[in-house]
Write a structure and sequence with these properties.
Length: 235
């Protein structure tokens, strides 16, 4: 039995690049689809939020002469493209999915409606939330935190390139030590960077646990759902 009934998985856009420097790697999309299928097969209800940094970041806009609001809107569209790619990969594995957007693109995906999203989850469909929150200045981390709370997920799984939260960046500080479990208060007092402050506060105020783990290691999501200690638990 899985220890969580309903989860929200947050993936960065960069996670879809693989060895590429831009765009979507077919191998990575297929790999993540298989990871998601492994927990769907356990009977877990799965929602996803994917970033768009592999295609376009709103913060890049100023460097090419585009104002911030329009740049963020371009980033929202990038997350929808990533969502469509993952949806296609999941459906190749016979996993029923629904792509829901915070902005109106009805020819491509459903508009986000909380009750409809929950109903999809209850029917065993994987729900992918695209276009962030539909508003500029908010990150996809914040979108993941808000959607997780709205659908009453049991946990927010944040996939990263490291295997948890450390006292310092383990890629730069070799002596950095890893936290197995840490409280929200400790994260704030130690000024540890997990996600942006708005996203973190949403989880803290609603007592939504976060698990930060290495998404690049095969089987980690399944291990988490089976109760194994993977990554760092923030609660």
């Amino acid at each position: 039995m899985a220890i969580y009934k309903r989860v929200l998985l947050k993936l960065s856009g960069e996670a879809l690049m693989g060895e590429k420097s831009f765009g979507i790697s077919p191998e990575m999309i297929e790999r993540y689809a298989k990871e998601v299928k492994s927990i769907v097969d356990l009977g877990v209800q799965v929602a996803l939020v994917i970033g768009g940094g592999n295609i376009f970041r709103g913060l890049q806009a100023a460097s090419i002469g585009i104002e911030r609001v329009q740049g963020d809107q371009m980033g929202m569209l990038a997350t929808v493209i990533n969502g469509m790619a993952l949806q296609g990969a999941l459906e190749k594995l016979d996993i029923k999915t629904r792509l829901m957007s915070a902005i109106s693109i009805e020819q491509v995906c459903e508009p986000y409606i909380k009750r409809r999203a929950v109903r999809h989850l209850e029917k065993g469909r994987v729900v992918i939330f695209g276009a962030g929150l539909g508003s500029p200045y908010f990150t996809t981390d914040t979108a993941a935190a808000l959607r997780a709370n709205e659908i009453e997920a049991d946990v927010l799984l944040k996939g990263t390139s490291v295997d948890g939260i450390y006292t310092a960046d383990p890629k730069k500080v070799k002596t950095a030590s890893k936290f197995e479990t840490i409280s929200f208060a400790e994260v704030i007092s130690k000024e540890l960077s997990i996600m942006d402050q708005t996203a973190f506060t949403l989880c803290k105020e609603n007592n939504l646990p976060i698990i930060v783990f290495n998404i690049k290691e095969d089987g980690n999501i399944l291990k988490i759902l089976n109760g194994e200690k993977v990554g760092t638990l923030v609660k």
